[in-house]
Amino acid sequence: MKVLIVDDEESISSSLGKFFKIDDIESDAAENGYSAQRMLRENPYDAALVDLKMPGMDGLELIKWMRSEGFRMPIIMASAHGEIEDAVKALKEGAQDYVVKPFDPEEMTIKLKNLVEASNLRAVVESNKSGSAENKTTFIGESPSVIKIREVIKKIAPSNATVLVTGESGTGKEVIAREIHAFSSAPDGPFVAINIGGVPENLLESELFGYEKGAFTGAVNRKTGLFELASGGTLFLDEIGDMPLSLQVKILRVLQDRKITRLGGTTPMPINARIVAATNKNLEEMVQKGTFREDLFYRLNVVRIIIPPLRERSEDIPLLAASIISKYNRSMGSKIDGFAPEALEALKKHDFYGNVRELENVLERAMIFAEQNVITLSDLDLRSSVSRPDVQNKPKEVLQEAVSLKEIEKQAISRALQRWEGNRTHAAEELGISRRTLISKISEYGLE
Ligand SMILES: Nc1ncnc2c1ncn2[C@@H]1O[C@H](COP(=O)(O)OP(=O)(O)OP(=O)(O)O)[C@@H](O)[C@H]1O
Ligand SMILES: [Mg+2]
């Protein structure tokens, strides 16, 4: 793993660099935004740590530039002044995290590692040690459509069928891909993800197919492609709608023949990776326009999972919000334990055009601002998008006291139990938790 440290104070970069080395993290230092730009163009980095205040181009500008140029690695913003507003701006521009100087290098190392691990922007190869699907992120929600999606996943995951997942940005397509892998017949095999849109077109083919030594100038060694790497596991082709037409035909051939030939190679090799593809584009429309091959579309569309936008399933918001808050409580060390009723109501009414990702951003910001252990309406910044009138006019539940995260969970469990007339196995399945966990929660909440 290689990190770019952008800081005008040379002493910070060099001491941090030394610290990273202990953990086998390589790093380069750039002393200002301009040299950072040059280095980013010339080297691949897995993450960037960017100082906010720098002479010339400041950190915010650099982040903006990086995102506009398509650099998608995780970015951590460092600010010497601890100015919350800048931190929020940085998060808006696409930084994943921020730290206030002076920071603890050890904490920074952990943050970096976690972010890089979570980043779906590069090809990731993971070997899943624990075979059970229980500890994995499940696709959270209790709306009928989410329940249906979880059922479909369980049903089709064990087969080898190709799956196409579609939905707006931030609806959880990657979560679904991972869940399919977790419930597949080979959950211990690798989960390999590639973001088609994130790889330059000229590298995409060799990334996917690999090459033999000497296949082209610069091919000094043999390279294994992702189809091969994913053998015995799952290959997640994210943003498949960004696949250039010239490559689409080659992908089609792999799906048909279940064989690949490395670039410059002669012998085709069998491929036994499960393929999951995802996109937020309208592939049917692309097929009509001739920008996506119809035959490839049908090859991919064997099983289709369509994730509805979050604004069409606002019932999922309380549960999602509760799970997001617990997650950030753990990583931020905060102790938020619920919502003021108006806050939860506002979240449910808001049209999240950025879907669950926007919900996460809104809540993360709210948690930074929250002065008590409950998120209030004034902590939420929901101005960014417009509410649709029909959603606005929905009858409101009138609640008096703050709604705790536990209460949200309790309600979800009791509703699931009601739906299944007390059948715990079914209720647990629907909730995406183990039966054991359900039983212990039932007694915790006194739902017997
Ligand atoms: N149902 C869900 N349960 C739990 N977490 C979810 C759910 N849906 C989305 N998320 C979370 O929301 C964020 C966005 O999800 P994800 O990256 O899978 O979206 P996506 O559809 O792949 O978006 P994009 O098209 O922008 O790549 C992630 O942090 C993910 O963990
Ligand atoms: Mg995605």
TrEMBL record:
Q: Which UniProt keywords apply?
A: ATP-binding, Nucleotide-binding, Phosphoprotein, Transcription, Transcription regulation
List the PROSITE patterns. RESPONSE_REGULATORY (PS50110), SIGMA54_INTERACT_1 (PS00675), SIGMA54_INTERACT_2 (PS00676), SIGMA54_INTERACT_4 (PS50045)
A molecular function (GO) term? sequence-specific DNA binding
Tell me any Pfam family this protein matches: Sigma54_activat
Q: Response regulatory domain location, by residue?
A: 2-116
Residues that the record marks as modified (4-aspartylphosphate) are 51
Is Oxidoreductase a UniProt keyword of this protein? no
Its GO biological process annotations read:
phosphorelay signal transduction system; regulation of DNA-templated transcription
Q: Taking every annotated instance into account, which residue ranges of this chain make up the domain Sigma-54 factor interaction?
A: 139-368
Kindly give the InterPro entries that the UniProt entry links to this protein.
AAA+_ATPase, AAA_lid_NorR, CheY-like_superfamily, Homeodomain-like_sf, HTH_Fis, P-loop_NTPase, Sig_transdc_resp-reg_receiver, Sigma_54_int
Q: Which PANTHER family match?
A: TRANSCRIPTIONAL REGULATORY PROTEIN (PTHR32071)
Annotated protein name in UniProt: Sigma-54-dependent Fis family transcriptional regulator
Organism in which the protein naturally occurs: Bullifex porci
